[in-house]
């Protein structure tokens, strides 16, 4: 696996936040932060109007490919 590439755990955390809120909130539990950060750095999430983060097309494609 490439360094910095989102893991299944990273994607699972993001998918749970999206299921719960419809997006990834800007404030999350400290345990979730590194997982969400890795997806942001990779380019899978982008800031959304109104706060928080939404999936990019790259992120949506990876989530679909991973089964989330």
Explain what you see:
- The chain has 68 residues and is mostly helical.
- It has a single domain (8-66), classed as Winged helix-like DNA-binding domain superfamily/Winged helix DNA-binding domain (Arc Repressor Mutant, subunit A).
- It is built from three helices and two strands; from the N terminus they run ααββα.
- A two-stranded antiparallel ribbon has the order 1-2.
- Helix 1 (8-21) packs across helix 2.
- The longest helix has 14 residues, at 8-21.
In short, what is this structure?
The protein has helices at 8-21, 33-42, 57-66, and strands at 45-47, 53-55. By secondary structure, it is mainly alpha-helical.
Task: List its traits.
68 residues; mainly alpha; Arc Repressor Mutant, subunit A; two-stranded antiparallel sheet
Topology:
Blueprint: H1 8-21, H2 33-42, E1 45-47, E2 53-55, H3 57-66
Antiparallel strand pairs: 1-2
Helix pairs in contact: 1-2
Distance between the termini: 19 Å
The DSSP helix count reads 3
* Percent in strands: 5-15%
Structural class by helix and strand composition? mainly alpha
Backbone shape: globular
**Secondary-structure element pattern, one letter each:** HHEEH
What number is the mean pLDDT? Answer: 95
CATH class, anyone?
Mainly Alpha
Largest sheet, in brief, is: 2 strands, antiparallel
Q: Total number of β-strand segments? A: 2
Number of domains: 1
* Low-pLDDT runs: none
| Proportion of residues in helical segments | 40-55%
What is the name of the CATH superfamily?
A: Winged helix-like DNA-binding domain superfamily/Winged helix DNA-binding domain
| Fold-level CATH name | Arc Repressor Mutant, subunit A
């Amino acid at each position: 696996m490439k360094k910095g590439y989102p893991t299944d755990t990273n994607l699972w955390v993001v998918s749970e936040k999206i299921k719960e809120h419809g997006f990834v909130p800007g404030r999350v539990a400290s345990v979730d932060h590194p997982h969400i950060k890795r997806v942001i750095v990779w380019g899978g999430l982008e800031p959304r109007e109104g706060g928080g983060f939404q999936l990019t097309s790259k992120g949506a494609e990876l989530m679909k490919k991973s089964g989330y």
